[in-house]
Amino acid sequence: MAVLAVLAGVLIFLAVEGGPAVFYKQGALPAHATSFWQLAGPLAFGSLWVAVIALAFAAPPAIGVALAATVYAPNQRFGRLLAAVLDLLAAVPSVVFGLWGLMILAPLMGPVDAWLGRYLPWLPFFAGPPSPTGRTVLTAGLVVAVMILPIMAAMCRETFALTPTTLMEAGLALGATRWEMVRWAVLPGARSGMVAGAMLGFGRALGETMAVAMVLSPTPFLVSVNVISSDNPATIAAFIASTFPESRGKQVGALIGLGLVLFGVSLLISVIGRRIGRKAVPA
Amino acid sequence: MSVTALPMGGGHTGPGSDFAADAAVPPMLKTSGPSLWRRAKNRLAAVAVVAAVAVTAIPLVSMIWTAVARGSQRLDLALFTNSMYGVVGQGGGLLHALTGTVLITAATATISVPLGLAAAIYLTEYGRGQLAALTRRAVDVMVSIPSIVAGLAAYALFSMILGPGTRSGLAGAVALSIIMVPVVVRSSEEVLAMVPGDLREAGLALGAPRYRVIRRIVLPTALPGLTSGAVLGVARIIGETAPLLLVAGFTDAMNYNLADGRMATLPVFIYSQWSSKGLDAAAYDQRAWAGALVLMALVVVLQVLARALPPQIAKLRRNR
Prior knowledge:
The structure holds 2 protein chains of 2 kinds.
Chain A lengths: L1 H17 L17 H34 L6 H16 L2 H26 L17 H25 L3 H9 L4 H30 L2 H6 L20 H8 L5 H32 L3
Helix pairs in contact in A: 1-10, 2-5, 2-7, 3-5, 4-5, 5-7, 6-7, 7-10, 9-10
Chain B lengths: L16 H4 L15 H36 L5 H5 L13 H32 L2 H15 L3 H16 L6 H26 L2 H9 L4 H28 L4 H6 L18 H10 L5 H39 L1
Helix pairs in contact in B: 2-12, 4-7, 4-9, 4-11, 5-7, 6-7, 7-9, 8-9, 9-12, 11-12
């Protein structure tokens, strides 16, 4: 009951302070936007875009690590060790990720961006001009990918572990190679679990603030799929964090309105993810 | 290629029929032995799995290595005995931020643990029907609140009560509680559900009222698990940056008063050392990494503690 009250409180406070912002006109809004949706639209795009990139980078290794911890693990000790590594990675504070992305990863990504810009410029993602600093959407997406990898891997690991032992043994007994056993016995049953894990990671990526705010130096109102340029779209969460300290009065209201939009989107994602996840584990 | 030793890593047995339904005709039934192509694919998959592990481990190792290498340059006594008050360039420390983190985290735990535990007790011991279902749904929703939105909510609450622009450690604790409460509810519910029903029924059969059974039987039995859940919850929120940046703000000076004024915390300290560098930029970077090292050490200690706690407490109780 107390939880209900807290949740209702959160919604009410946000709605009261942020709701009116939807109707704000130029002057009251941050970054000289002319309407709330002109501000929210590109930011929502930025959030989704970074999250999509993060998901694309995180999904294959997450599934790989989950397989390594269950089917491919030489023994139980190795599986537990891997789980501990994932827990540790999940526990690293997001500022530290931001600091790492900015100081270690970004300089390494500079040459990569330049290479992509030189050899693959016909793809809209690599249209360039490449940023020399490496502070790009690609780098931000990579950092967020590392952050959401543990949660996705954990989800996959759990569903892989649910595969009946007899089924795997039967596959091997029929002469299947280990990969064929995984492909035909483990993955089909775990499909919905993997999708649910991906949705969970996607929701996390949407709400990720600090790492993105630190890696990117965004251009307002930009909508672009170019991932290697130094002109970056901003994300909702990063925009709130970087604009909030200098905002007053109605501008704060507008930022809270943006928070409401973000909340709505991530709620939708998590509801979908949970619905799929529930199908994964019947009973 | 022969069938290798069965690769079991904690696989559970269960009804197999529904899993088999999805698999179409397996290709291995069509040939008599693994062809070169199939062996190659098998080898490729194994390499991919090993690569996935490497890809996961590299950022973690790199991060720890960087934090230790760069942070240890400033890991001296002054770091833990000085604040940043009046410090420009070299010197200074993070005592104010450490104090703030300890105070705000303690306040958060004080709010979240009773609230979350109460909700979990309700859900496992009393909860039936629509209200319980609604509460479960509410917990699910709260889990998906992005941390920055939690910060905004706390800001909205405090500016409604105390006027706009308020910053305080207490507001930070409220924001973090929004994140921590669902974590505590989830873990406590799991632990409480593991308490054997026989114990409850035995208590009730002896004529004890429900609340007394919970107070004297269920809670003591579940205590180790509850504690470990709470510690994990603390580990989860201690590194939160965004909400604190919004509502607790940043300051260079000490502040012991949760209710009054801006209060520095470790994550925000790291962020501000990076974002507002003074003349001697290297000194700020070093402090940022030293802060990161201290924060990561704190999180690791909490996690290890949470894992080590349950058996120890259980043993203690048995010996008594």
